[in-house]
Amino acid sequence: MDSRHQDDDLPSIDEFGERLDKSRRKDDAVEDLQRSERSALGQAFRIGTEMLAALLVAGALGYGIDQLIGSKPWFMLAGLALGFAAGILNVYRAMNEMNAALEEESKDE
Amino acid sequence: MTAVLATLAGPMEQFEILDIIHLDLAGVNISFTNASLWMLISVVAVSVFMFAATNRAQMVPGKMQSAGESLYQFIADMLRDACGSEGMRFFPYIFTLFMFIFSCNLLGLWPTIPGLPYALHTFTPTSHIIVTFALAMVTITILLVYGFYKNGIGFLKLFVPSGVPWWLLWLIPLIEIVSFISRPISLAIRLFANMLAGHMILKIFAGFITALLAAGPMVGWLAIFPFLGNVALFLLELLVAFLQAYVFAILSSVYLNDALHPSH
């Protein structure tokens, strides 16, 4: 009698599992939301700086060479062109990573 | 009145480096500054947090322990996604990096305690590009040292992607090298620019509030708008504090992946 009373009071394993699943799903939803927020803002900023950094580096290198051998402004111009190419490469790689991450995520679901 | 004057001071003043203890080593200024102080505070805060989280670890974790464990899990998953299980050898570094940047960003949002000497006002070390650049250079140094150690001279294949036609072999490595050098710069700029811009906007809006309040009762009530704006911005800054620490950590692990697998 006593043991049956306890069974009535406590949720069965199935019920407990269901509740656990439910609360876990809620966590996932929150996480998904956070993830999309995070990545939208982060991605936008990432693309911008990738491009800028490559232009800065190559432009500065070209300018440095110009200063050294007095060939203003040709190496800086070549550097900027090179920086543009490298920036596009950076952006291309960043987008590839983001796509891969996105595909991974949709595969999980 | 002094409080009003302090907020009306320019939005850039909060980034000024001030000596707390002046030190000099053979003509080189190695003073203990407010930047050093806030980095020290971050390190202490992270250590105390992690110690509290791991102290008396239990099967069913308490609040502290589960906060610590979820951060650990979060970074471990991120690193494993970026570098595979081999990449876990970088975990101590990446986790330290993330926790340090995150706590610097977060503590920088703490309001200055009124009445403290001016040099002790709240300061965000990560809003200085030299700090973020130094952190980025640590990542790149680990990448270079470990890359050459593991792959030898073959690490240079990083700059020559496979399948490049011979007549492009002079150009592609140049582009790859520029792209490589731009990595620490983009890491540094991203974190620094985010923190700098966020703190400047907060300060400017706060300046609007005091200016409007000082302008008299007719327009004083308008101060509610920049105030609400600042509340919203502050929430955004909390997100940015986390986001930028996360981005710095994930990009560091993506770059370190090149040391493990140098061919693109």
TrEMBL record, chain A:
GO biological process: proton transmembrane transport
Transmembrane regions: 44-62, 74-92
Superkingdom of the organism of origin: Bacteria
The keyword Transport is assigned to this record: yes
InterPro entries: Atp1_alphaprobac, ATPase_put
Family statement drawn from the similarity comment of this UniProt entry: Belongs to the bacterial AtpI family.
Physiological role: A possible function for this protein is to guide the assembly of the membrane sector of the ATPase enzyme complex.
Protein name, UniProt field: ATP synthase protein I
Annotated source species: Aquisalinus flavus
From TrEMBL, chain B:
A GO cellular component annotation in the UniProt record: proton-transporting ATP synthase complex
Protein topology in the membrane: Multi-pass membrane protein
CDD domains: ATP-synt_Fo_a_6
Superkingdom of the source species: Bacteria
Key words, A-Z: ATP synthesis, Cell membrane, CF(0), Hydrogen ion transport, Ion transport, Membrane, Transmembrane, Transmembrane helix, Transport
Gene3D superfamilies reported in the protein's UniProt record: ATP synthase, F0 complex, subunit A
Subcellular location field: Cell membrane; Membrane
Main location group: membrane
Gene Ontology terms, MF aspect: proton-transporting ATP synthase activity, rotational mechanism
Membrane spanning stretches: 35-54, 90-109, 129-149, 158-181, 201-224, 231-256
Family matches, as NCBIfam families: ATP_synt_6_or_A, PRK05815.2-4
Family listed: Belongs to the ATPase A chain family.
Purpose of the protein: Key component of the proton channel; it plays a direct role in the translocation of protons across the membrane.
The protein's name in its UniProt record: ATP synthase subunit a
Organism this protein belongs to: Aquisalinus flavus
Encoding gene (name): atpB
